[in-house]
Structure formats: structure tokens, C-alpha cells
Amino acid sequence: MGATRSLLLFLSLSNLLCLLLVDSSMAQIPGFVSLDCGGTDNHTDELGIEWSSDNYMSRGQIATISVANETRRQYTTLRYFPADDNKYCYTLSVVRRTRYLVRSTFLYGNFDDNNVYPKFDVSFGATHWATIVVSDSTTIETQELIFLATDPSVSVCLSNASTGQPFISTLELRQFNGSIYMNQYENDFFLSVSARINFGAESDAPVRYPDDPFDRIWQSDSIKKANYLVDVAPGTEKISTVKMIDVMRDEWPPQKVMQTAVVGRNGSLTYRLNLDGFPSFGWAFTYLAEIEDLSPASTRKFRLVLPGNPDVSKAVVNIQENAQGKYRLYEPGYYNISLPFVLSFRFGKTADSSEGPLLNAMEINKYIEKSYGSADGLVLAALAVTYPSFDWAQEGGDPCVPAPWTWVRCSSDMQPRITSIKLSGKNLTGDIPREFAKLGGLVELWLNNNSLAGSIPDFSGCPNLKIIHIENNLLTGGLPPSLADLPNLRELYVQNNMLSGEVPPRLLTKDLILNYTGNPDLHEGDNRGNRKKIFVGLLAGGSVLLIVGITSFFLLPTLKRILRKLCSQEKSSDGLLPERSPSSLADPAAESAHCFALSEIAEATNNFERKIGSGGFGVVYYGRFKDGKEIAVKVLINDTFQGKREFSNEVSLLSRIHHRNLVQFLGYCQESGKSILVYEFMHNGTLREHLYGTFDRGQGIDWIKRLEIAHDAAKGIEYLHVGCVPSIIHRDLKTSNILLDKNMRAKVGDFGLSKIAVDGVSHVSSVVRGTVGYLDPEYYISQQLTDKSDVYSFGVILLELISGREAISNESFGSNCRNIVQWAKMHMGNGDIRSIIDPTLQSYESQSMWKIAEKALMCVHANGSARPPISEVAKEIQDAIAVEKGAEISSGEVSRHSAHSSSLNLPAVELQHLSVEDYVNQPTPR
Description:
Blueprint: H1 2-21, E1 32-36, E2 43-44, E3 50-53, E4 61-64, E5 77-80, E6 88-93, E7 99-106, E8 119-124, E9 127-133, E10 141-148, E11 153-163, E12 167-168, E13 170-175, E14 189-198, E15 219-220, E16 236-240, H2 255-258, E17 260-264, E18 268-274, E19 280-287, E20 301-305, E21 316-318, H3 319-323, E22 333-339, E23 342-349, E24 358-359, E25 361-369, H4 377-384, E26 408-410, E27 418-422, E28 429-430, E29 444-446, E30 451-454, E31 467-469, E32 474-477, E33 491-493, E34 498-502, H5 505-509, E35 513-515, E36 521-523, H6 528-569, H7 598-604, E37 611-615, E38 618-624, E39 630-636, H8 641-654, E40 665-671, E41 674-680, H9 687-692, H10 703-723, E42 728-729, E43 738-740, E44 746-748, E45 755-756, E46 764-765, H11 777-782, E47 784-785, H12 787-803, H13 820-829, H14 846-859, H15 870-884, H16 916-920
Parallel strand pairs: 1-3, 14-15, 27-29, 28-30, 29-31, 30-32, 31-33, 32-34, 33-35, 34-36
Antiparallel strand pairs: 1-13, 2-3, 4-5, 5-12, 6-11, 7-10, 7-13, 8-9, 8-11, 10-14, 14-25, 16-17, 17-24, 18-23, 19-22, 19-25, 20-21, 20-23, 26-27, 37-38, 38-39, 39-41, 40-41, 42-45, 43-44, 46-47
Helix pairs in contact: 1-4, 10-12, 10-15, 12-14, 14-15
């Protein structure tokens, strides 16, 4: 009965919360909730949508931003949160068994004045929804999710910031009437919106409320961006009508969307778009309506062709026949289809058709498997709603996933269990919640220093309990004998309560720390010797702690020196120095470089016998020490002030940075007028030599190896930008400064031009240095160096890996172009990637190639602030490698859910078309 009452109270308070979320003075559109995160006043926008302030949100801070060309009031403020281990949740009330769209938006606007683009996770309840990666301070990032409500409230949570701070601009909830998004998987999966496209749009503006009564955002196919609707076939023409379209029900695309379309006058419609989060299983529908007045003899029949899905092309689309007339909606689609990251699709007319294909709109959603969170979630939720005025009880979301509440600790199981509850000094009143006694995984319970009354419950349902702190309360009654039956109990603190009666004898004989002092009416039986034994144990334990503390105080400096020495000798599993993040590169206590004698170097190189490289810096020789270690010896020939400064700079930097993807620096020599740097020997030379140098082109590196090399190099650069404090800007990234070891693993080298960033400053004013072809044009013009200058150079390297062409060439790019960036942009702007792919690459996945090509173009954007951070680039390369290796779809995909839903054994590409009436009449999955 206690659990039932708590749950009923939870439901009642959840409904009350719904009323609190929206000011009752506002006439909200039915089914709409629109939160202006960070806003302090209610207002109505130009669409007629009422926005509510989020004054009820007590956590986080508010920031005001100003972004050029963005005048909407809801985007002038945001709410941001600390980059810690906690999660921060908005909770919205919903109606059970009702479908909704939830939309969250994020406009950075440099709210923290750091120009550090944030990256963090967004979860829907316990389910990971999306990772927000901000790549431009002026672009709104949007995430949409369609779900069937199974509980009286839902939570949207921000957490796990890897860069910057989590923030949110708006949060919206839109209620549907019924059927369009119903599917047989909705009890176990959400739909994450990947594409919603209005074909034939007359402008770049999206179609949304009030044209769409549910405020879905139908993006125009006129938007021009690298990953959106390219490869448009010749003869593609936009058409429109002012006649009304019979869309059957208002949840289908609105009139304004269906009144426009594209037709393939030459018999074909082709497009390509990127689907974030794919490859995956998804829900994909096209929306068609005949809006041209064809002659009676005319026919329009066509097939959808998806590469790799031959079964799809069997179905013939005849719009008028299937829609039973003109100006009526027809919606062929797939409830369960596997789609790639790069979706290339074509509509081609059949041989007996007089007209080319037609397309009005398209919608693609990705399935996200629900995580049901903690097994104990309802128990703690019932507790939290009984303390509505306490901040600790309003954290929202699941107690454990994706991050635990601040007063909770959880196990690492697939479905976590509560292991620790710490509510010390939280002004708790009433009885100890009996629900705690049902937490089978509970190990620690801290309820001390409150005003809890009543008796101690029976904790027999918590066999893992080790520590119980319920001291300094107002508890009455006796100590339950069942406490002695807890097999793992080791500490029990009940002092300073109002307990009475006799201490159970088995507690006195049990091997545990027991403190029950301060309970005048609680006493032992005749077994007094045990009481003395327990307190002697406590005193002895205190003495030991005191001795350890005193010893540690005197030995701590010595221990630190020993540990420092051990760390300096530590090796990683592959024999390289471990990755370390020096707290300060300017720290005089940092480890210094080894100074070799010139005689050692001369002996190792056999008097500089074997030259293995040369350049403007000097000559590189091969060497081997007596212990067999192979080395590369760089002898600098530049004796100018600049040359000496570069030498000193490289020694200073390399003696303090260590990472598996940076060439290992062994030491230096300055003797007899020579300036020498000593590195580990890299057996396979430079990346440049493999692409167009001395290594045999017949043994050229394949695409997946190129990706692995790029990923290694990106991780090395990421360490310089993020892992070093202050960060380091390389300033001379190029293929000749990426070296390959005997296992073909890449490492970044040559730090002669590198710069240390200044803390708190977005750029470093610097005389322009670098290599033509790799040099950031923004840096060249402004002389202001940032880490995005390295990103530009790395983007050039990615283009070289794709094309096998040098960064600068008088012959490779045609008469009107000398550099690889201009050449690649020209071809990819036309949707033509094939022309830039190295013809020696025989095997590659198109989606991984497109992924890297588009990321490379982002890296070489003219505006440095629009370039992604190197960590984002490294993640993209890692994803491309997974595509190449045919990595299995993640555990959150539909294909792995057969244990939960046998209906997923349907063919993935089975074409399904049901009328709304037929579909509604199907049994609802339960």
C-alpha cells in the first residue's frame, strides 16, 4: 500500500508540474509546450506560438547572447550548466498512450566568451538521444524525437560535456492526434528525425506552424549546403499548384508542402544526402500527389532505386492509381529499412510511362532503442516527489542514467541498480521511506543528521547492505533483530536517536562497527563484555588512523619523489611513452631533455654516414646506439637567429610533451657549433613519400590505411590542442611532417615552428610561418594564429589522402587552378566526388569517402570559426573507419532487438502501404 500511495502521489505531482511549466495566463496552442530556456518573461513569436519562461528551473545559469541576423526573442537567451559529472534535466508532463514530437535547439552565440565550441550529450530519459557538436557559434543545432508516451512525464537531460559547457536554447513539445507515426516498434523504440524535406519549395524558408498544425519543420530543398540534396539530375524541374490537396488527415504533410514538387523531365530524379546517425534501421516515407493536369493518355509510373537494395526496384509507383485520383496524397514507405550514412536514391520512370517521376516530400527517421534505466527508478522517483521544494529532489530523469543523481551511486550493470544513497543533512522528515528496504542492490545508506521519526524498517530485502548511517535523527522503537541477518553489514550507526529496548544479542556478537550511544532507553542485555570489545576496536582503529596520518605527513615528500621517478620511466604497452598532460609547459620543474655528447652521436651515425632526408632545416642521418635503438639525427644548418630560435623552441617543447602519436624526442646536442636533434627512427618514412615520393607507388596505401594514418595524426594534434595546458599550435602540418613507424602507425613531427597558446586569449599574434599550400589564408591575412590554423592544414592533408594529389601543383588541377582546396571545392560543389578520388584506390565505401571529403571541406573553410575542432575531425575519421571495416550496427539499433520484438524479423526492405484507416485498426503493440 505504501508503494501504491507513493506512486499515486507521484502521478498527482507530475500533473501539477505540467500546470506549473506553462503560465496559466497564456493561451497555449493545445498540445504545445514551448520553453524559452533562460527567458524570464512569456512572449508570443511571429508565428503565433506562445513561449514560456523557465523561471522554475533552479539549476544552471542564464546567459544573454546576440547573433547577427537572429532576431527571434527565444534565441537571445539560453541556460547553461557546469561541465561536471552530473546531468541537468527538464521535465515535461505528457498524456499516456499519446504520440509527441519533442524538439530541442542549441545556439551557442559564444555565451561564455571563450570561443570553445561545446560538445555534450542529450538524453531522453535514460536513453541517449544525440551528441551535440557545436561547429559554428551562429548556427542553430536542432534535434527532434518522436515518441509514444508510456509515463506521465518525460525528461530531457544534458550531460557529459567533453568540451565547453552544456547549454540549451529552447525546448518544445508538440502533441499529435493519433496515427501517422504509429508503428509496431514504438513501445521499444523512439524515432529520431533525420530528414524532413519539402521538394519543389519556392524559397529557402521552412514550412511549419501554422501551415503545419503540429509545427513540424519541413526544410526546403533549395537550401544549399555540402551534405544536403546534391547529385540533382539534369531535367529536374520545380512545379506547384494552388489547388487543394486531399491529405486525408491533418497529421500527414500539410497542404503547403504537398502543393509543390519536383519532376524529372528527362525521366529521372536523383539525389544524395547525409543521414546523421546512420547506418542504421529507420522509418522512411515519401509523400506523393499528382499536381499536374496531364492529358487522359498520359501516364506517370516510376520506380524507387536504392543502391544495394535490389528488391526495392520491383515496386512500381503510379500516383493517380494508388491515390485514387489527382490532388490526393499517396504515401509509399518503409517501416523498417536499413539505410546507409550517405543515401543516394533515384526515381526512374518505367518504359511504359510518358511522364517522368514526381516527388513532393520525404521523411526519414532513425530508430533509437529505449533504455529503461535503473531497475529502482520508480522507487526513488516516488521519494523525490514528496520533497517538491528541495533542489536535490528535482534533478529529474532516471536516478542512474546517463549520469546518477548527485545523492545516488549506481552499479555498472546493463540495467543499473542503486548502490548508495547519501541524504545526510537534507532536512528529511517523517518515516524512513519503506521503499528503501526494497533496493536489492543497496550497499550504503546515509540518512544521518535529519529529522526522521518512526521505527527502523526491516532491511531484509537489501542483502548487500554494508553501511547504514541513521544517527542524529528522531527515530523511536527498537533495533530490529533482522539487522543481524544482513550478511554483509559491517557498519551500523544509530547514535543520538530516541531508540529503546534491548540491543539484539546477535548484533553485539556480529563482526561490525556498532555505535548506539545517545539513546538513553536503548541498552544491552547481560552480555556486557562484547560492548567493551566493540568500543576497544573503535579506539584501536582510531589509533591506527592517527599513526598512518602522522607517518604519511613525514613520508609524503619522499613518496612523491619516488612516484615521480617511476612515472618518468613508465612505458605504455606498445613501448612508447605514455600520454601525459603537463600542467604547465613553462614549469621549470618539468622534465628536461637529455643532452648527448657529440662523440655519442658521431659513433651512432658512423660519422654521419647515411643520409635519410634533407630540407631547409638541415640534414637527417640514420643512427643506431650500442643498445640497438635506432635513431634519426637532425643536424640543423640554419645558423641564423631564427634557426637557433626554432632549435630552442623544438627542444623546449619536445622535452615536455609525450604522446603515442607524436614522434618521440630522445634528446639534443649543442657542441662544436653544431645543433642536433635526436628522435626515434621512423622506418617507413613520411606520408608524403608514400603518396608521391620515393616509396613504390605500386605498393600504394589503400583507403582504410589512409584513414588510419589520418586518425593517428588527428589524435596527435588533438593532444597538442586539448591535452597540453597551455595548448600548442603546430603551425606547420603537412604530409612530410607525418611520419610512419615500422607498423605503419602515424606520428606527427617537426615542432620547430610550433607556438604555445596564451591562456584566456583566442589567438596568438604571430609572424606568418608555414608551408605554401597548407597555410591558413585567414592566418596569412590577419597574422593571428589559432588552433583552427592547424585544422585548415589538416583539411588539406585529408584532401591529399582522398585524391593522391599534392597540395600545390601547376599540372594536376587544370589551367584555372593551382591548389587542391580550390579544385576540390569546385568538384564537390557540383556533387561530383568521383573526379577527386585517387584512381589507384580500388576499394572503398562511398559513404566513408563522402564523410571524409565533406569534413575536409569544413576544415578548409575560409572562416576559422566555422572549422570543426580537431577532436570532432578525429571522431569523424573513426566513424569512417568503422564504415570501412563493416562495423556492426550499435546495440541500440532495431536489428538487435529481436529478443524484444519478434515482428522485427520482417524483411527490412518490405514495401508497406496502408491507408490510415487500415493502420489504425491494427492491434496496438503492448
